[in-house]
Amino acid sequence: MRKSIIWFVFVFTLNTLAIKAQSYKACTFEGEVFNTTYHITFEETLASKGQNANWHDSIRKLFKDFDYSLSMFNPESIISAMNKNSQDARANHYVRNVIEKSLEVSRRTSGAFDITVAPLVNLWGFGFKNKENVTPEAVDSILQFVGCNKIRLDRKGRLHKKDPRIQLDASSIAKGYMCDIVGDWLKSKGVANYMVEIGGEIALHGNNPKGTAWKVGINVPEEDYLQRINGIGGILKLNDGGIATSGNYRNFYYHDGKRYAHTIDPTTGCPVQKDILSSTVIAPDCITADAYATAFMVMGYERAFDLLDKNPSILAYFIITDENSENGYKVIFSEGLKKVLDK
After folding, report:
1. Nearest Cα to 62, choosing from 89, 105, 86, 92?
2. For residues 71 and 269, what is the distance between their CA atoms, to the nearest angstrom?
3. Which of 195, 212, 301, 321 is 20 to 30 A off residue 62, Cα-Cα?
4. CA pair distance 221, 37, nearest whole angstrom
5. Is the CB of residue 192 less than 8 Å from the CB of residue 229?
6. How do strand 252-255 and strand 214-223 relate by DSSP bridges?
7. What is the pLDDT of residues 36-90, one digit of tens each?
8. SS3 (DSSP) at 244
């Protein structure tokens, strides 16, 4: 009797895999949002047939609602109202989820990820205000009111600050979360196979249109004189999860011959000068991947690997500096990532 059950399950599993491996007709949406681009590919279903325009409009409506929730560049957004200490500001479910995830990742990374870095980001010229005169004194004065331990969100959605000068910056987690939101919306419409990419962050599920695992390439930090990124490093093969990349070779500026990268270390108040050039993270969802990709840039790869050893659900692919290599960098990755690395 036990053998019959095993045989039945085995046959059922084979049939299921055969169904999943079938190719399908794909629909694609693309455009610009949040000062970047988006590309959405998903399986056409009976529900979506003939509804492309309506579905795309619905997704653009999600973008708009999200912008009015978490964009620091939108003066009418909820997070902008919180930054201005408005007594009427209340977190909706988007804002609440981002703040709660930010506090969680901050705790687990010993403060390497911090949603309260907005004043420092502005100071260094990467935020929603113009670059200010950067001095050690200016950095030290701002550090006094930076830290996730200085904020609390109550049940009614009100943000409580220990200092009214505290401001939130969701840019290092928002695009990843938006990918999850669009993916969840597609799932709610019965779509089993999709990939949502916004500004390089990705949420995916199921298979690609050929019926195989989605393949995602990782850029290597090689620049020409136009500062374009050239070359693909590793290729990831996935059927589910979120992928996010943070790299200091993408967003930076030079001042007095010195290069300043956009990732700010919340403990020093200065742009990160660690050994990681690029941090690509795979997690169960993209909001988590996005947050840890930034945190690992701040932590450096040794501290990052200590955390990864304790969290098997999070995988990472790092491009780190290496003066002994021809290109000036090398690739290292967590043990579990071998299973999803396309050889």
Report:
1. 92
2. 22
3. 212
4. 20
5. no
6. unpaired
7. 999 999 999 988 988 999 999 999 999 999 999 999 889 999 999 999 999 999 9
8. strand
Q: Which structure tokens are listed for 271?
A: 């742009």
Name the pTM for this structure. 0.86
End-to-end CA distance of the chain: 41
* Order of all β-strands in the sheet with 341-342: 214-223, 229-238, 341-342
Distance between CA atoms of residues 20 and 198, nearest Å: 26
Indicate the residue type of 53: A
Among candidate residues 178, 218, 222, the one with its CA nearest the CA of residue 318: 218
Residue 30: CB atoms within 10 A of its CB come to: 11
At 6, the pLDDT band (50, 70, 90 cuts) reads very low
The pLDDT, as a whole number, for residue 19 is: 44
**By three-state DSSP, how is residue 215 classified?**
strand
Residue type at 204 in one-letter notation: L
> Sign (positive/negative) of CA torsion 155, 96, 84, 292?
positive
Distances (CA, A) of 43 to 22, 53, 103, 128: 11, 15, 35, 37
The torsion angles phi and psi of 99, rounded to 5 degrees, stand at -65, -45
Distance between CA atoms of residues 306 and 315, nearest Å: 12
In contact, 168 and 83? CB cutoff 8 Å: yes
